Every structure is written in C-alpha cells, then in structure tokens.
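Input sequence (116 aa), recorded before submission:
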Amino acid sequence: MFLAPSLRRRSAECLKPPRSDPAEASVSSVGPGLVGEASVTVVPELTARHLGSGTVAVFATPEMVRLMERAAVNGLAPLADGQQSVGTMVNIKHLAATPIGRRSRARSLSRSTAGG
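Predicted structure, token format:
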C-alpha cells in the first residue's frame, strides 16, 4: 500500500509502540490482561473512497483492521527477545463511521496465551 509522505509521518507518530525496556521484559510478564492502544486521525488517504473499499469518505475498514493490529502489537510490547505472537482471527464490529479529521482509537486486550 502506498502512503503519502505526510501520512507516513502522521502514522509513524500515532502508531509508534510504547517505549519499553527489553531488559525488564520476561515470560512472566506476558499473559492475559495485556492492553494495547493505537489511534489515528482520519485523513483522505485512510478513507474507503481512497482505498476503493467503498464510496464514502470515512475511515476505511482495511485501515481499521490495520489500526487494531497496531493496538495488539503495542499491547505485546513486553514480549521478551525470542518470543513472538501470531494473530489467527480478526473479529470486528463497526460502531460508527469516522469522517475525515476525526480520530479513531483501537484498544486490544489479551485474553489468553497458548503454546510454549
């Protein structure tokens, strides 16, 4: 996907993972209850009209899923070196359309862990 330079700067600012000290991360810090957040201001390049996923100039569903993924990544910042997370399902519900100029926020909550 192509992002205009101005959008890349905005996205980079809004979607940066929180700072964490890798030395403080441990296996015991990863588990249910981890929360992550991410937000973005809707610009024309993030709309359904621009992406071709609709004809209305509101926050596009593909961008909403990307924002949700960023929130999940931010919530998993405590992962220790060598640990990984792989998403296996996305379940979304639109609560309202977000027009250009408004902010959209995603929040993730880890409910369980699996694997070794």
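Checked by second reader. The two ends are 34 Å apart (CA to CA).
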